[in-house]
Amino acid sequence: MSRESNSSSGPASSPKARASINDVAVHAGVSAQTVSRVANGQTNVRPATRDRVLASMQALGYRPNSAARNLKSGRFRSIGFVTFNLATLGNERTLNAVAEASEAAGYTTTLLPVMDPTQLDVAGAFGRLEEQAVDGIILVMSAEVGALDEWGLTAGLPLVIVDSDAQLPYTIVDTDQEQGAQIALQHLLELGHRDIAHISGPENSFSSRRRADAYRQTMAAAGLPARPVLVGDWSAESGLARARELLATDEPPTAIFASNDQMALGVMHAIHERGLSIPGDLSVVGFDDTEEAALYWPALTTVHQNFDQVGRHATRLLLSLIDGEAETKQKLLIPTSLVVRDSSGPVRGGR
How many domains does the chain have? Predict the structure, then answer.
């Protein structure tokens, strides 16, 4: 929005005009073309002339207009990062990895959190990024909002999706959620547990649904009945509430697999408040491997996700799409690993 100046206030009140390339040329006694060569780092300028132009730039406070240069080349050297919830461990670490990988490639990163993950709000985020002239977008699609092609926003704009339905027709990079849940459950099965409960994350979360599906499939493959999945909201409070429900039954499970470490923390609190021991009475396994997991009481056995790899690979694939060097429909799943600590142990005899 432009703003008219008040002529009665006099010249002293007018903002100082930004120095132009012509101002630098006059100040240095060279042509505007020579200033442009220096600003663009070209080598066909004599050292003495370059020094004089650089000194004039500094004296006048001139900054080369990188946006204009990028517009001429068709590149803006910028990528957008859209996430539904930056407060989660995974999204925060993924963003850090994307920003570092982008910077190393000479790109900036523009963050747009979407507070309400609806089609309308996500469409608005895409539109704002288009206005800010990004070359491509990484979308952390941690909740279901409908089909992307319904938005009509992705045509011509390279897109990589993290944490989503792997069946979407776009380039996908994510943790192998099924594999992570399987190794957690296999660990408990090898310890002799046959009655394992699962506390999942929200039902609209892709990662939560895939871990819950893997729980049912792994139990079925072992010839064991799966308990009804109890739904939490990723918080320790929800893990506490769901675990209290499990422990109030006549036949509580011998092990609980929580879909993230925060809910596992709530589970452990519920076990302690009933005077039970971990892992003597119940084993607990989480998912994420947060920095605090090793400090839980007892230290938490959990599934380690490599969010740094997810962010780096997502950035690499997006830059390849921007350069036209990669297929637009790829699926890359980053494997997990199990970190065995003190919260899991053999099932007690007779259970």
Answer: 3
From the CB of residue 298, how many other CB atoms can be counted at a distance below 10 Å? Answer: 15
pLDDT (tens digit, 9 = 90+) per residue, 224-275? 999 999 999 999 999 999 999 999 999 999 999 999 999 999 999 999 999 9
Q: Is residue 259 within 8 Å of 209, Cβ to Cβ? A: no
Looking at the fold, whether 226 and 311 belong to one and the same domain comes out as: no
Sheet holding 283-288, edge to edge: 230-231, 196-200, 255-258, 283-288, 301-304, 337-339
Residue 149: the pLDDT is 54
Residue 92: inside a domain: yes
Indicate the pTM of the whole model. Answer: 0.77
Check residue 74 and give its pLDDT: 58
- If asked whether residues 184 and 292 sit together in one domain, one would say yes
| Cα–Cα nearest to 52, from 33, 71, 68, 38 | 38
- Do residues 181 and 300 both lie within one domain? yes
> Where are the alpha helices (H) located in the chain, listed in sequence order?
21-28, 32-39, 47-60, 66-73, 89-104, 119-131, 177-190, 206-221, 236-247, 261-273, 307-322
Scored b (16 or more CB within 10 A) or e, 71-100 reads: eeeeebbbbbbbbbbeebbbbebbbebbbe
Could you tell me if residue 286 is inside a domain? yes
d(CA 351, CA 63): 73
Residues 6+ positions from 325 with CB-CB distance below 8 Å:
none
Torsion angles phi and psi, residue 214, rounded to 5: -65, -35
Give phi and psi for 160, each to the nearest 5: -125, 135
How many helices (H) and strands (E) the chain has is answered by 11, 12
